[in-house]
């Protein structure tokens, strides 16, 4: 029973990092490739990214608390803690900073698709920034997964 918090941390890491990779690099590209209506594909991808953002906030918060309770004040000096914190900051930045800006541009573009409007360049810029941050978070997540799930020689 004492290992339950550790097991939950492993599951949270798996859910967060696996979800980032599955949504960002499998589901969304397949959706855009297979859906002829790119506006619909974008809306559906946006919904998946939003759910993944909230998932990341929950998992990241749990992982930070787990590290803090496991290591105490020393957690603040651990690379693992710093990576989790950076991932959480990126998640919050995308979720509450960039995505609302992009949604506002889409609304202002109506009745046109944002990519056919005067706001297309701004939308592309914010989409690019969001993509770079998402890639950064994904790579940090890969590092986190590798460091979290080290292979034990006695296993």
Task: Characterise the protein shown here.
The chain is mostly helical. The protein has one domain. The protein has four helices and no strands. The radius of gyration is 18 Å and the shape is elongated.
Features:
mainly alpha, single chain, 0% strand, 81% helix, 4 helices, 155 residues
Helix/sheet category:
mainly alpha
In round numbers, the mean pLDDT is 94
Rg on CA atoms, Å? 18 Å
Task: Sum up the overall morphology in one term.
Answer: elongated
Largest beta-sheet details: none
- Give the end-to-end Cα distance, rounded to a whole number of Å: 21 Å
The oligomeric state is: single chain
Low-pLDDT stretches: none
Percent range for β-strand residues:
under 5%
**Separate helix tally:** 4
**How many E-type strands?**
0
Q: How would you spell out the order of helices and strands?
A: HHHH
Number of domains: 1
Helix content: over 70%
Protein name: Membrane protein
Organism: Ferrigenium kumadai
Subcellular location: Membrane
Transmembrane segments: 7-31, 51-68, 80-98, 125-146
Summarize the structure in short:
This protein has 155 residues and is an all-alpha fold. The chain contains 4 helices and no strands. It has one domain (4-148).
